[in-house]
Amino acid sequence: MGKLVTLAVVGIVAAFTVERLVTLWNRSYASREIDPLPLPNCQLIKGIESGSEDIDILPNGLAFISSGLKYPGLKKSFLPDKPGEIFLMDLNEDNPKAVELRFSRGFDVTSFNPHGISTYVDKDDTVYLFVVNHPHQQNTVELFKFVEDDRSLVHLKTVRHDLLTSANDVIAVGPDSFYVTNDHYFFDFIFMFLEMFLGLTWSNVVYYSPKEVKEVAAGFYSANGINISPDRKYIYIADVGDHNIHVMEKHANWSLTHVKTLQLDTLADNLSVDPSTGDVWAGCHPNGFKLFHYDLENPPGSEVLRIRNILSEEPEVTRIYADDGSVLQGSTVASIYKGKLLIGTVIHRALYCEL
Ligand SMILES: [Ca+2]
Ligand SMILES: [Ca+2]
After folding, report:
1. What range defines the domain where residue 333 resides?
2. Mind listing the UniProt keywords for this protein, alphabetically (predicted)?
3. 269 known member of a binding site
């Protein structure tokens, strides 16, 4: 009888494990191959060799690019010993170049590990840059003031809080307030993997201001990119693990309520919003398994979607760019400014296209 019970338990555990692995395999689109859809006028950006995870463009065409992310469980950057950087590109130039921004003294550059970013232009035209940072395996949001003449970032403060568990992307809603996504509850890769393996929905969105910090949305597989509509009434959240984008209504007390969910057939990472049209641009991973496996012989591909009229009954989803990884590996973001498109990646390069 004892042996029968043992056998039954082993059988149940084995069946459960197989079922979970198959679910995870399917959820990551591990068997998906992408058909390339190139754009005609694109070039890789010189000087960006170790990722461009997030890109945010100011209304005047200055683009900020975060580079050098080291993320648990992912292949180390192609330049693993180099600290992270923020690049600037002026998209008004004919042949824009990426320039590395300097940091004010006192900011620990050596452990800088930038992830999602967001800009905020204050009433007095001061430009603030919010950066999700993972120094020494921690989760912080760094607040900088951008000094254009000096091409530098003046560090104003480091936000630390127990609710920043596994921060991914940030959207500024004031000079010192923001929403931030936690893509998992844990930041350690083993526990992060367990969350994915068990299909837990412990990922959330947190609102932060100096006066109040609170969870405003929860129940995501993996909340990743976050952005705001041009009228600043709606917040868009990409759940990369659930292949969708949630539209949330923002209220006066900063709480969020669910409006709708747009289902996609790919793993959307960061979201950008075209200020002139309201179109949402998503940098996507066609195959999540290839991203974590990161075999240079069979690298992760890239995919960019444009979503028009996201608030309407029938949003129009168009694939604008796709690549099997031979040009661009692991796209995370696509940002647009007056017909110029920047596509960023987790640890690879960055692409500049004229549409
Ligand atoms: Ca962002
Ligand atoms: Ca992201």
Report:
1. 32-354
2. Calcium, Disulfide bond, Glycoprotein, Hydrolase, Membrane, Metal-binding, Signal
3. yes
